[in-house]
Fold each of these.
Amino acid sequence: MIQEYFKVLSINASRIRNLGRIRELYAFIMLLDAEVVFIQEIYIAGALQVFSPHFQVYVNMEPRAYDTDGVGIVTIIKHEIKVLENIIGSEGRILGLKIANVQLWHVYPISGSGFKKEREIFFRETLNNYMMLWKDSTKYVIQGGDHNATHRLVDSVNNQREKFQDGLVKHLTVHGLKDDFLSVHGENEICYSRITARSKTRIDYIFSNTKKCMEFEYIETQLNFDHKACWAKYDIELVYQKEFLPRERFYKSWVIPKNLEFDQEFLNCVKFVLERTEEEIMQLDWEKVDFSYFWGRSKLAIKKIAKERQAVIVKEVNEQLNVLNIFYLGTLEKIKDGVDAFEELESIKSKLNVIYKARAEQAVDKLKGTLIDDHVYDIHKLQNQRRFENEGRIKQIKVGENIYTGTVDVVEAIAGVMREELKVGCDEPFENPETPEEAVFLEKLRKVGLSREEKMELIAPVSEEEIGIILNNEVDKDSSPGEDGITYRFMKCFWDMPSYRFLYVNYLNYIREIGNFGLESNNGIMVVKNKKTNTIEYKKKRKLTKVNKDSNLGLGKVWTKRLKKLVLPKVLPKTQFNCQDEVNIIDELRELRNLNQFLLGDETHGQINGTILSIDFDNAYRSTYLRWFNLVMKALGLPQEFVDWFWTMYKDLSVTIVVNSFKSLPIKVERGFMEGSPPSMAAFVLCLAPLMVSLEEVLEGIQTGDDINHKVKAFADDMKLCLADPKEIPVVYDLICKFEAVSGMKMHRDPRREKCQALPFGTHRDIQDWPEWVTVKDAIKVVGAWFSNIGNLEKLNGDLVKKVFFDTLHKSWGIRGTIQQKVYFVNTYLFSKVWYISQIFDLDKKLFYGSGREKGILTQALKFIWAGENERCTRPLQFRSKDKGGLGLIEPYVKAKAFLVKNMVKDFKQYEFNHWFLENIYGDQQIMLEIMNQGKAEAQVKEIYQILLDKVVSNNGSIIPSREERRSQVKWKRSWKNQSNLRGVVPEEKMFAWKLCQDLLPVGARIHRANAERRCLAILDMGTTCLEVQDREHFFRVCELKGQIYRRLEMVLCKFLGKDVSFVEVIHLSFSHRNERKLRIAVWFAVKWLYKMWISKNDNRLQLMMEMLKEIDWNVKMKRFSRSHGELSELREIVDTMKNT
């Protein structure tokens, strides 16, 4: 079915009940001819009666509405439009419909100025969680309804002067939704959808994720509603017909569900199968055992057990839901026919809620545990949501000049390109001895010269210890698995089973011995996806190759680890800065910086003559001949058994292209290394080494003031050549062409892509006849750092850092989280943009602190962290470490200096303290000399940073105290330790504890706004009002409203700890006890109790104690504080006894 235009209407019906009025509304709707209509505040029974004959009707009634007036929200949709799925959620607040390639969300959050917090939760969590169920499942998303909130300040003019709803802004950002009224009429347009005597607001919206909204109007209904209707017209097609794909080529990615990691029944079944398999093997002739058969059979069994167990977990509940949903729809039909079946409807909803509640409890338990274990969980979640927001189906692909449309043609086009790229390519047969042309380069390699012990270590069987170390320390446990669906998470989980270790290690050594994967397939899955920008260019697509983790770990990672340890340090040129433990990318950039500074010269003598030529290879990994790598390994004299091990991984290797869950036929890999495979990087740098050595021999080089002669530098395939004379370019080109012929690598020559760039200095800048394949630049970017023949390198790279930092910050400005979570976010995701460059360049102080109107990185980061807070703490307290009561915010300028100093020391030591560096590269040497004079020349960045930071947070060796810390009667070290050891709380509670101790809670006495109310104003017994100034002590202890609850906390703590506890000790968490486990439980209990007092709107002591009993029970249930169950039981008994006294 194809629809030319798609029209959406949203109306708040002002709680109408009269059938005559509802029929008038129906007539109004028919005039506008909308495909979909969202109606809020309407009598459900009347809506069903009037609209059902003409439309499909979906309703969501407010809870217990039949006792009042039966009001809810209704979505009506034309009969010819097929609804694929629907969601009824949040008790009369959310209706979701999926039709073809569009998902429709009808929303109606709670109204009223007193419920802004509830609306915030609705937009940030409730609505977001429902919408995530269908995220990326359709092309278009349309959301409409009375939102009871605004997302711009200008959309509200009222007496309360309320700010726009932050949660709504965040919601729109996360889901990529736009205000279609503004899309049509412009960002500066102002209109109001609800006008009363006291206010004018625009709270009725239709949002979408498309630019295809053609018309948008706010319309007076003439029905005496207090809201205008909003109407939008979209130029979108409703396409239902699915693309036909051959069933045998359908690829469904499956991964073992994470929840099975702790499912004891699943683990017991797996253990049983593995143990029986081991027993079966032990009864066979060991020499005839095919471990590939038993390993493959075991993996299939694990996969089957996982699927069956997961199905059992969800089957029973789903069956109940299906039955209840049928009854629910039947009851709605009765109501439509005029039958008074509201009570029956409420009964069915209550049964549905029991099921949803059970699911919710499991989800809440899991989420709560996650929030406690990982205090930055929601920060990570947001990052992951944004990371691949633009992923989706690939409908077209451009290969060369041809455009292919449709999944089948797209897959075949990509597969065709890959078949060409992965063909042998080399004219010389694989087994033939080296040719004279190959020998020219192979002679540049020297034999490894391995000792007998090193050879034995290189070819030793794979061991359990080796696998265990890598599995526990060197893998991402949730990285994408291969076709078997088994992740490192579950390999690590199974590793505790002796039978699993037995099978796995024997399988690895078996396939090494036979030289192939036996009965197991050796196939990788190459998934092609969109990058951040949705382009049809094949070369700009993300290509992710996924292989089974068992072979990836046991063969690839072990082989690579041994190669890096025993071979690469002996054969790689020192100027290859990849795959070597002693040098890295920062060392290459430092050398390039030194060279760049040298070539810039000085004002007196001008620039030095020279050129930095950047060379890049096209598809370097996939283009390398496998014959060439075989010859390289032989030339190095590697043990044949180790060489054979590599070919075991590549024998019969194939890849399958997957696009939109449709796969190509397997493509045999006869050339190149698989990107993402552990051996690929190490194998490639070995293949490139002969070219690097050859270039070193023919280039004159540029000798800098540190007596270093710079010739060739490389980080993997990214090579930089240092040319003293432009006449060297033909020599270089000739050498590269000869190397291309023997290795299969191809240098980028297309000038339009500007991959090979020249940065000339001195008289080289006057040269006009550069080769066509070279692009001449005044500045070039090398692996994230800029180098230039004009201007200041520090400023150039400082501007780069600042732009990247501010771009990331502005995208993240609405991020939700506590101050501590925002500090983590700034440290991890924002300041990390600075550290890379700060290791190379001495960045200006103004970059961090700003100057005049110029914004600084630190000042903007602090605005982000403290946005919406009542007051900030002192700067030293923000930078102080958490174990000393601070927030642990990194001081970026100090950390940047620490990075620079570390590399300054490394440079000076490497070049024998050559003072040319002091004058020409680093400038100020005072900080570095101070560090070295303290005997810290070997110190790591962390230690140097701490030394420099002490000058910021300390005064003459003493910590600079905060305002609250000047209180002498508080045992602050104990308070800091208790806060640092605080466990079992969610981020908001942890933040509350810190603010509590530092007296930063926004009580009346701490609010500094003009004309702010500082009195308590709590309503006490007999209806009197508390007129005392509300400070921290008044809120928790003095005021009659909360005082009685606080005193009960003191009684519990005194009895539990067996000693008196003062208010000062409780409020600063500075009490102590000889039993550390008991002390931790007491601190946890105090924080939980006080936090509940802080957020509670009532003074019900019994209710709070019941909630605390639930908290204790939850910790027991979830096995938290596993070593302290005795203490938890004792605490529970005390609380349970006191709740009745």
Amino acid sequence: MEYYEKALEIAKERGYKHQETRGYLALAEAYRLNNQIQKAMECYEKALEIAKERGYKHEETRAYLELGDAYKWNDQIQKGIEYYEKVLEITKQTGYEHEETCAYLGLGKAYKLNNQIEQGMEYCEKAFEIAKERGYKHEETCAYLELGEAYKFNNQIQKGMEYYEKALELAKERGYKHKETCAYLGLGKAYKLNNQIQRGIEYCEKAYEIAKGRGYKHEETCAYLELGEAYKLNNKIQKAMEYYEKALEIAEERGYKNEETRAYLELGEAYKLNNQIKTGVEYYEKALEIAEERGYKYEEIRGYLGLGEAYRLNNQIQKGMEYYEKALEIIKKKGYKHEETRAYLELGEAFKLNNQIQKGMVYYEKALVIAKERGYQHEEIRAYLHLGETYKLNNQIQKGMEYYEKALEIAKERGYKHQETRGYLALAEAYRLNNQIQKAMECYEKALEIAKERGYKHEETRAYLELGDAYKWNDQIQKGMEYYEKALVIAKERGYKHGETRAYLKLGEAYKLNNQIQKAMGYYEKAMEIAKERRYKLQETRAYLELGEAYKLNHQIQKGIEYCEKALEIAKERGHKLQETRAYLELGDAYKLNNQIQKGMECYEKALEIAKERGYKHEEIRAYLYLGEAYKLNNQIQKGIEYCEKALEIAKERGYKLQEIRAYLELGDAYKLNNQIQKGMEHCEKALEIAKELGFTLQETRAYLELGDAYKLNNQIQKGMECYEKALEIAKERGYKHEETRAYLKLDLNPVDENYDTNSIKISDTSDGAQLQDEIADRVKQTDIENKTITDDRIALAEQLLILGHSYQTEGRSEEAIKSYEEAVQIANETDHNDIKAKAYQHLGNVFTGISEYKKAIEYYQKARKISLDLEGDEMEIIAYQWLGYNHLQAGQYQESIEFYNEVVRLATQLGCKTRKVNASIGLGSAFSYIGDFASSEKYFLKAITVAKQLKHRCLEKLAHTNLGQYKSCKFDAAIKSYLKAEEISLDIADRKEEANACLMLGHAFRQLKKHEKAIKSYKKALSINKEMMNNEMQGVCFEKAVEGIINEWCGYCCFIAGQRQEGMTFYESAKDIAKKVGDKYQEYRTNQAVGNILCNIDNYEKSKEYYQEALTIAVELGDRHCEGTSCFNLATVCRKDCDYKMAIEWYEKALYIVRTEVNDDILKEKVLTGLGIAWFNLGDTKKAIEKIQEAQTLAKDSDT
């Protein structure tokens, strides 16, 4: 550049205009190569000015060409086109064919960049034609490269590759190293697009080699970017990132802003794929900043689309949509039809995830229209696949299948093997949902075949996982496991962490179904480990839910609850509404099993609320069914029936056959319990009909069992036996051991006598969770029975009696369960087999806990512990001690309560049940407070708060704070802090009932501190929440009606003290209305008195008398002479104030008679005498006035002494 500057200086000084023009052109090129485009353009403009002025046509042409290129690089495509057009004008006059060729090439590139591919190709063809004819080998090479690029953009990859090959051949032959590098890069890109990643890498590496050797920094940067993309496609994200970083380093150093932008975009994509969404967002934003500043519209679009996807993956759907919309706005202005298609597809996906299925479909349809019109076959396939999925989600399975078929048809016709694989996988899923398992398996197999043949490892993994599911649903658990293992091998080998997590979850489920709970837990833990490490929040939530269910099945209910709560916490934090709904359902189930029916119902209600709001129909049905079952267990059969009917209605409307069967069975059971046997039979028969028609053998077995019960209750014993026989036949054939046991028991056949296989009991429900634990009694560990060859018949019989006991327990036949366990103890005594004896005692403890005979339960637990000191604790034992602690606390036997709670702490520590430990600490805190040991009480409450915080168990933390507030003796300020914390937590966990309770306690505390304004605010909030919940009939209420009345009464009192008399009366009136409804005469009396007092204070004497009179009437009804005397006194006072002294004296006399003869209340008597004295004085009878006043004074002196 220095030399060009010197040449230019001399030319300008000497007036050599031609040399000056050439100097500007040379200097401009140097600036361009140094990436100083703006400076280069200034030099070209100066050269153009002189050339035009002096008529230097050749230099004018060259200046136009270079300016066209500069504007093109600066993303001012239209201006670039204008300059190329000017070149063509000159060449037509001058016959400069070389420049004409260059102009055509420039126009070809410009139109291609402007997304006018067809027009771009036409200009490139013209350039090629002239170059070929005139022997311009360099331009011919350039034309081949541009045509290759154009065909690639036009989705004609094979044709594009042919042109790149021709360019490569010519470049190598002529030694055009720069063009050889470009040809290798083009071929690398093309092979990548053709899914031949390895071949693509080889070509990119060749390009990199030449670029590095020749110092082509721009091409080296491009090679790094292309290699990064290739490794990304090959799932080697870390390696891809290394290449992107290298590209970024050169681009930043050399000022290649376009490549810098692209490097940031690619790094954003890589971090996003690596589940580092936040970092990905940062890179996208950097790319966007440059793109906006430099006017790189294409890169700006990519940045917006990338950010949209990142926010969508981060579950910030709304924010993601905003970015898609921004991208779409630019796209439409620029006419980038390909990107418009992609934006519509992404928006469709966002609306679908936001559960706005219909809106999502609209966008997919828009994408499809453009794709079909423009011939974007890849996008057309994607649109069909997405539309298929939306119809599937909308339960229009058949229509969904039609779209999948269309996608598959194009993919097969065009040879798009990757999309063909995806089409088969999607179609298979549709067949599966349509219960056409065999057809689904055929599609999965086809997908697997192509994936293996083409090396699509990701799709091969998915096909194995889906085939595993299919075999599992077909009750071929073992075969399903084999496929899961194959998927796992590939996922681990290829580093597909997401696929590996899925494989572990599915293997866990398979082992769980095979009743290998411990092994299942191991797989869930592995899935959890990866999910946490990789921040796969969705999979982490699922792992917690699955572990929660596994612990439930393993009879560790408390631990199961803890895992479900962790899942719920993540789901709420991340806004994963579907997972939140499922977590509430699982949590509800756990509470139900823990015999906390009310708490379980609250969880089901929350699940129902979200499911209805978000349109999760499957979960809505489950919530209705679970609520129906809970109401049945709570003996509210009619309500249970109503919920099951709602579930049935949705299931029939949506075509969910499995849920329809379950709803019919639940209704059948409910009608039986309601003594409507015939109706119960009808529902069971409907369930049976669907199950047989669709081949659901497990549901068929259950339907026969339920139908058998109905016939038996209807006294059609023979018919019932036939049903049980059919159930037994299917259960034995299919290996449904739980149902087989039930059938034996129904037929009054002892499964022990039928050589019952003790080593093959398995959970057989593959659809709606384990039904093995329908009642709290079902806590016995079947798997406790050792897996060994039984040699001693007596020991074998004892072990079989343990199983029989469990089976009876499951049936709710506690007496027969006890008998079986006692027989097992007897045999264990005879054979001196202490292990069986200890287990039998433990199981007896569980039975007695289940029927709330806690003392007897503990006797058995202690016997078991005495025999086997190493016997593993059972959560049921903890429950027994916990209930005894609670019952003794309620009965005022505080020392015994403390002993039982201490035992809970000991056992919970052994079993690692931290939640029960917290509950026990709260119980201990309460017990110590009752015996006046406030220091110990506070210590236990604070310990409970600390552990609850560690567990992130907000409910228990809130409970501990509430109790701490209650037992702060008279330290009301400290109590308020505890209640405020309880209120804050209740608000965080959206527990409106507890929030209301905290507000109520705050109201009481503020009232005690005489902070009446604050008390009113708290009471009002409590009432407001109660009203809000009452308006939502599904949520219930916070307070019983009587309590609501008392809160209104306290509000009235605080308002009165605070001088808010009108509002005080309103609250008292509300309390009075409630008192009438609930029949609380005393409250009705008090509210009338209170309103009378307020009216009297504001001089509304007539109205005041009415209320006092009403209070008096109620006092007489109650026969409460003290209340009657008080009312007479109040009436006397208001008459005196109203100057009606005669009437006042009458009422005072009545009051005085009552307090002298029937009520021992000196204070009231003193008030009456004083009032009477004042009344006589006002009537002018000073003698009587003095007499009454002196009597009052004497009474007051006597009271003081």
Amino acid sequence: MHVARGSSLSASSSTMASYSHGLNGSPRGRGIMRLAAWDLLRALGNMSSIPWCIIGYFNDLLSQTDKKGIHPHPNGLCMGFRQAVSDCDLTDIPIEGHQFTWIKSRGTPHVIEERLDRTMASTSWLQLFPQNSWLKEPDLEDVVVEGWGGRENMEVVDRVTRCANKLQSIQYQELSERRATLLIQEEGYWKQRAKMHWLQEGDMNTRFFHMSATVRSKKKKVTKLIADNGTEAHTQEELCEVAKSYFDILFKPRDGDHDPVLNLIQPRVTDDDNFVLTAPITKVEIQQALFQMHPDKSPGPDGFYPAFYQRFWEQCSDDIFSAASTWLERGYFPTSLNETNICLIPKCDNPTSMKDLRPISLCNVLYKVISKVLANRLKFCLEICVSQEQSAFVEGRSILDNALIATEVIHALKRKTTGSRGELALKIDISKAWGFLRGVMTKMGFTDVWIRWVMMCVSSVNYSVLMNSDRVGHILPECLTALIHQAVGRGDLHGVRICRGAPEVSHLLFADDCFLFCRANAAEVNELMRILHTYEAASGQEVNLVKSEVFISRNMSQAAKEDLSRILGVKLVLGTGRVGKEIMIKSVLQAIPSYVMSMFILPASLIHDIEKMINAFWWRSGSTNNNNTKGIHWLAWERLACPKAHGGLGFRNFEAFNKAMVAKQVWNIVQNLNSLVAKLLKARYFPRSSLFEAPLGYNPSFAWRSMWQARQIISLGCRWRIGSGVNIRVMHDPWLRGSANRWVPSPQPAGVYQLSVRDLLHEKYKAWNIVKVRNLFSKDVAEKILETPLVSSVREDKVVWEEERNGCYSVKSGYKLAMRYIIGSDKYHVMGNWNGIWKAQAPHKARHLLWRLCRGCLPTRSRLLERRVECTLNCPVCDEEIEDELHVFFRCAVARDSWSAASLSSVLHNATYQQTNAMDRIFAICSNESSDTVGRVAMLLWCIWHNRNDKLWNDNVQMPRQIRRHAFDASNDWYSVHKLQSNNVSGNTEADLVRWEKPALDWVKCNVDVAFVSGSGRTSMGLCFRDNSGHFMADMTQWQQTVISSVEGEAWALLLAMEEARYRGLDRVQFESDSKVLIEAIHMKRRGNSEFLSIVHDILSLMSSFINFEVKFVRRQANLVAHTLARAANSWASFHRFENIPFCIERLVFNEMQ
């Protein structure tokens, strides 16, 4: 091996030292020289800790993908080279173009190609151009404050520019002083580039992220485009010109007659809506909009991520708020603020047309903040602006609703084989345009101020296209609904009814896709085309006929079908047996695979095949190009899918997950009975009953069949909340609380079966009619009914989901319930202290090794023999005893010496840990040692196992002190990183009050708490008002003869406190509670079905009337006065006001006043 060494300076930092090597590898076939070359590579890596890059002819392969030919490269050599590269912390930089650099026997059938030349770089080298990782730099805040400009009179965009210039001068400190920080930055940098937001924790190993980011970059590269005139573009300059021309035409304003469409739109927005929409923006709104963004979302042209503004919100917030208010008041943005990059994402592997590329707009964060503030305001009146035929965009609606309707309509057309009148479904794709947005908003009743704000965001943008990272140049369905409704009203168009009594469906909107339905005759088809042409001319949007399809009912002749498709100018989809599902999958579901599992129960055979493939992927060996990669399946999928606390890995059981996802659609129908999809399904399948009692029906669609099965999950986890009680049947609905069984047990007296819950309440007020309940029911049933709390804030009967605090169904809780009651996963549970393993303070790979050890999944030679794998039985390290788990980790001489070197001999030889199998021994250690010690043990065992494998495959053996050093370094790195991360988190959280503090001048403080005294069957509360000097003003106690949940009790107490403040004429009150759940629900304005959130809704209504009512969380130590009053409330009448201080709190108030 020949090495040439040189030094260079980073392009981004003239003082940042780095070095590079040129290399010429050892010749093939000389094993000793190859080992020497790998050792030399390690020696070079240990020479210095500064950034390192090595380039040259290595004459070795990292994997089988580096070779193309008939004979595979020896796996042992690949593993040896990979290990050397890993030891040096090098990352292979992908090659562009042809992936092989050496060829032999060119032009013959025996041609061999290999990649022998490569460039590799250390992590620190790759981090010379970090992204959000720089936010963890020490002293960064000082640089930002200086760059931002403090009180200087500057535009925010100028502050951002100056800040960027200051930040470019940041210098890294010596890497040896900041290893923990760089480990976090390394993972964060590649995590951000990889855009894998779902990965929450890594192993300080960025190879996965690097591969993911590299694949994304390579996939986004465009090499050829065909322009509209048919010419091909290959060079970067030609590609840029094609992209620029495409968007110039797309965004070019189109003149058209808007009036025929705009005149059909009726005013919908009220004066009250406009008042809310155009109210002055607040700092809280801007903060909320900013923190709704993911920190690592791609930046706009100014290069700043949301993470920057989130990290320095305290320093920048005042200036951003002031600037945003000014921009909206004057009606335009600074020129540079609304510059936008259009990033092109390929829809296929080799894009050749601009239509093969999906444009994604990358806006500056400050621009997105303003638009998000407006979008958040618009949410509250969007439902009245968007017709029910559009199921996207509106909160509370699901795009799957229209997918279900389309499925049912297509199913009905497929079933229609008789009759003279045919019907058709036309699926069209509509391009986007904003040409007449101003006119639409005006007709809907929006004020000029709101219209000006919206048009600021959508009409003043300067677009630039990113073509292979080069920046190139600057470059509505409600109206369609109105046209269709007009035609239907005149009788020129008729929608489709799937059965008698079902609503007529004329069109469905899926964002920019659309389904149109009419009768299959020339007159209605021509009317449909006239409507589309009118809409195109008025809006500037275009129907993409290439992507459009038509499906016609089966009772029409083939000739008639072809004639109608020619009039429409679109492709005819033939009426085969699976056409309905094919159209739905291609047009709506194919884009997002989870849609399929959200609508249809997959066949058991398909689920089995999916789980089988995933299981095979999990257990197979690392090389993906070796044909013999099946691997040993140590555990069945059902055991892997068990929760981690019961011996599994928490993988999803696909049957349960599939049913939980479909159950979400059942829940949506139960909650929104007036929605179009609910009306349609009710007319077809359960016209005279509830969904829970509906029969499967005759010839049902696949979607209904799936929901009919999945409703079992909803039945198991739901109950009725009691409002008026009119809609809740005593014996036929689940409504009881306080026990596992939510149903009134049978049998009961005959007259009870016809009663509603309303019949059990007093007529004039909401309380149980105790005498009537006890006369109608047996003693135990009557007590269960009387124990069910009645919450006055709940005014409407509604189904709630018991498994979530907000009372709304979630797939996560539905999945857990399905696993408990339907799948019965507990039969695969394994008892043991599994939580002790997963809580160990060690990298995940070490905890995973402990799990494999306890589940018998490590390929020791004794385990391999059990699996009928022929091998020698002796330990490959000591060659003295049969290799099993106890020998490898506890009895082998090298292992014992490693325990001693790691100062863990006391754990190894502890008499409590001498069980006869490895699993019981590990569980005993986890039960009796601290999580830190368990973590050290886990990391040591991982290094022992790594040493065993190194000996087996590479004939390398480390000394016990080297094993100890490796384990110590890895544990120390992991601990340092997690300590730093936890410090960052704790440093960002606001300190909670632990002692009572006096309110500000002219303010009153009210402390409130709730108590549940065991055995009393009561819920009691107490509150105390004090002035800004800490003097007692008044207090109150109240109790009710029922037990409600703790969060409901806290909310009930706070609501009573606010009503008491209103009664006393207090309008500047700070309320303090020791319930963090309650205070967060109020601050976040959470909504839901539960009784708890119904009370929160009443609290928010009161606070909207009294703008100087504030709520704050304090710890129990700062709320002792209210806590003491609540505990003592049972000593007095159910409602008691105190104008003089009670004896029980006199000492506490006096002490806190000091």
